[in-house]
Each structure stands twice: as C-alpha cells, then as structure tokens.
Amino acid sequence: YTYWIWKYTQSEKYEEMEGVVQAINSPDITIGRVVLLNSLYELESWCTSIIVQQSDGKIIHSRNLDFDNPDGMRKITYRANFMKNGEKVYDAVMFAGVTGVYTGMKKGAFSVSENQRFPQEHDRGAIENLLMMFSGYKEISWVIRETFEMCDDYDCAYDHLKNTEINALGYIILAGTEEG
Fold first, then answer.
1. pTM score above 0.70
2. What DSSP line would sit under the chain, residue for residue?
3. How far is residue 23's CA from residue 126's CA, in Å, rounded to a whole number?
C-alpha cells in the first residue's frame, strides 16, 4: 500500500491513474491495481528492439513485446494517436490502463522503444528499482512520453532521454530519420 507516495513524487502520473480508476468505475479496479499495472514493465518483461537502415536509407525501428502472459497482454494492447489542438503529435503502442509510453513514433522526427535489462546483470536490483519508483525517480515510460510531448526532433529527444535520470533496469533505443 505504498503507492500513495506517487501522489507526491509523481503527481501528474498519479492523477492520470486516478482518472483511469474513475473512468472505469468498477470495484475491481482500484488505484493499487492501476499502479501495479503501470509498473508491470518494470517488474516482468523481456522485450527487445532493433534499428535497421535499408540500402535505400529507409530506417526501420522494430521491436517485440515479450511478457509472461501473452494472451492477456494481446487483449489490452492497442495503437494510440496522441493529439493536441486537433493535430496528431505522435503515435504509440499502448496497454489499456497504462499512462506511460514504451514504444512510439513521431513522424518525420524520431522513434523510441524501451527494452528490459535483467536485475542480476546490474548493480541495482529489482528492490532498489522499486524503491526508486516510489522515491521520485521517473519511470522510463513516463520519460519517453515526456520526450514525445516536448521534442520535435532527434537532437532534442536524444538530449532529454540522455539527461533524465530513470529508475528502470532498461535501456532506450532511439532512432532518427536520416541515414547514418
């Protein structure tokens, strides 16, 4: 029941999660469950991405989504268009109830995907990762979302992703639109 701390450390994200609970309006959907759902990637995924440049210079950014419950995840996975003032800002592969972005593309600018690393391969383990989540470090999916909302080009995206501290045991794949 320590999810309440997000109300103070990640207030915007917490307010969106409260909105999800209110919109669904079911006794089965609690703030605790929505917080857990929004932490799912940090707790149990093994995804991978690749970037390929074809001989004609076209960039392809591809990824897989490996989860323990693929049938359940298929049912809640969708593609979203994020709009502002009636204009499409970016699109992303989303999971119902999750407010962050793990995979997305801003047309003509850049694409981003997050990929998981395993706790045993790093100095900080899963417990430290969870403590960081509740002590104010930004989740990688929220940083990626911020990047799509505030950046209109590759250089801005690179700088924001490089210079924002995250809590996840993951890494970010960023692709541009130009050769090389």
1. yes
2. -GGGGHHHHSHHHHHHHHHHHHHH--TT--HHHHHHHHTHHHHHB--EEEEEE-TTS-EEEEEE--BS-HHHHHHHEEEEEEEETTEEEEEEEEETT--S-SEEEETTTEEEEEEE--GGGSSS-HHHHHHHHHTTPBPHHHHHHHHHHH-SSHHHHHHHHHHS-B--SEEEEEE-SS--
3. 31
Positive or negative torsion for Cα 73, 75, 79, 82:
negative
pLDDT tens per residue, the chain (180 residues)? Answer: 455 666 766 777 778 888 888 888 888 888 877 777 776 665 555 677 888 999 988 898 888 777 677 788 788 889 999 999 999 999 999 888 888 898 999 999 999 998 876 555 555 566 666 677 666 677 788 899 999 999 999 999 999 999 988 876 678 899 999 887
Kindly list the catalytic residues. Answer: 47
Q: What gap in Å lies between CA 140 and CA 3, rounded to an integer?
A: 17
Residue 106 identity (one-letter amino acid): K
